[in-house]
Amino acid sequence: MAERTTVVRPGRPPPDDASRGQEFRMTEPPARDPDVLTTAELAARLALSPQTVRRMANAGQLPALKTGKDFRYSWEAVRQCLRRPWEDPAASDAPKKGAGGQAQRRARAGAARHTE
């Protein structure tokens, strides 16, 4: 007679006789805060390319949290940032970097159109 072995995967309960051979699956995906957006989600809301959004985050023009290679954004923080009055970059001594004025204007217009 062959010996029976039970394989228990980490994070899963061991199978009982009634459920032997069935897969254990999570019924609900982990909850995620709807205010926290990925780069692609924010780019879609602002009608910008993801590259422009990343460039603006790297330059400090958008509030963002770096997570590994990508960023996470709070929609409310981004909207507040884009509502601030525009500052003339020529008036400051800071070096120019990040997205240009046209991309910033499009982001502000996209944030104004998208209300949630």
Automatic annotation (TrEMBL):
It comes from the Bacteria. Residues 1-34, 84-116 are annotated as: Disordered. Residues 14-34 have a biased composition (Basic and acidic residues). Residues 36-80 form the Helix-turn-helix domain. SUPFAM superfamilies: Putative DNA-binding domain. One of its GO terms (molecular function) is DNA binding. Pfam families: HTH_17 (PF12728). Residues 1-10 have a biased composition (Low complexity). This is Helix-turn-helix domain-containing protein.
